[in-house]
Amino acid sequence: MNTDSLSESETSAAASSKSDDATKPARRTQKKPSGERKNRRQLREAEVEAQLVTELNRLRATVRHIGARYIDLLESKIVQVREAVVSNRDSSGRLERLNLMLRSLEGLRVKPDKGRRKDLKRIDELLSEMNQIALKL
């Protein structure tokens, strides 16, 4: 058996694909003038830039909203602790707990001018601890 020769069906398939290539019209790609391509790219770039600016403004508003809400939450924790301290005056061991809370509060080290998240976290943790102590008053 000769492996170099093509079968009759393979030969006709190869011939038909060559004839199909010859009958197909040549693809013409019209190049757009370079100025038109630049204008479209600049338009797309301007649209993307405008969309990005819009999304950044929306993010800024979201950050402000979340920040304001978080500050409200911390302030409500402060009010809870203060109310617990003022309302429970007759419990035993109150002086020790009050001193513990005072020392904890005095030991808080934050740098408000830097606006760091870790300072807010420290305050939040301190208020949670103080709230636990205040509940025992």
Secondary structure: elements and pairs:
Blueprint: H1 8-23, H2 34-87, H3 94-106, H4 117-135
Helix pairs in contact: 2-4, 3-4
Can you walk through the features of this model?
The protein has 137 residues and is an all-alpha fold. The chain has one domain. 74% of the residues lie in helices and 0% in strands. It contains 4 helices and no strands. Helix 3 packs antiparallel against helix 4. The longest helix has 54 residues. The chain is rod-shaped.
Our Rg estimate from Cα atoms comes to 38 Å
Instruction: Supply the number of structural domains.
Output: 1
The amount of helix comes to over 70%
Structural class: mainly alpha
Shape: rod-shaped
Q: Approximately how much beta-strand content do the residues carry?
A: under 5%
List unreliable stretches of 5+ residues. Answer: none
Distance between the termini: 102 Å
Largest sheet: none
Question: What is the H/E order?
Answer: HHHH
Helical element count? 4
Q: Averaged pLDDT, please?
A: 84
* Number of beta strands: 0
